[in-house]
Write a structure and sequence with these properties.
Strand order of the largest sheet: 3-2-1-4
Radius of gyration: 15 Å
Number of domains: 2
Number of helices: 4
Distance between the termini: 29 Å
Shape: globular
Order of helices and strands: HHHEEEHE
Structural class: alpha+beta
Length: 90
C-alpha cells in the first residue's frame, strides 16, 4: 500500500472527495510528500514579523524556508519563477 493510500484510508468517510483529498494532503508530513515525488511542491503560510503587516513565508516540502515576501502576489511570482507548485496552508 502506498503512503498516500494508507493516509487516505485514515481520512474521514463522511466528507466529499475534494475535501477528503485536501484533508489528506494537509495531514501528510514533508517526508511523505517527498516520497510521493513532489519535489517541486512548496507551501505558503501567512504570518507576522516584528509587529508589521502580513508576511508570506514560502517553504519547500521538507520545511526549509525558501522566501519571506511582503504580499501574496510576490509569493506567487516567486513560485512561478522557481517552477514550484505553491500550496496555501493555515
Amino acid at each position: 500500500m502506498s503512503i498516500f493510500a494508507s493516509t487516505l484510508a485514515r481520512a474521514p468517510e463522511n466528507i466529499s472527495e475534494p475535501d477528503r483529498t485536501t484533508t489528506v494532503l494537509r495531514q501528510m508530513t514533508a517526508s511523505q510528500l517527498q516520497q510521493l515525488g513532489v519535489r517541486r511542491l512548496a507551501y505558503a503560510k501567512v504570518g507576522r514579523r516584528d509587529g508589521r503587516g502580513a508576511v508570506y513565508f514560502v517553504h519547500a516540502a521538507d520545511g526549509q524556508l525558501l522566501a519571506m515576501l511582503d504580499n501574496v502576489n510576490l509569493a506567487l511570482e516567486f513560485a512561478i519563477q522557481n517552477n514550484l507548485i505553491l500550496v496555501p496552508v493555515n
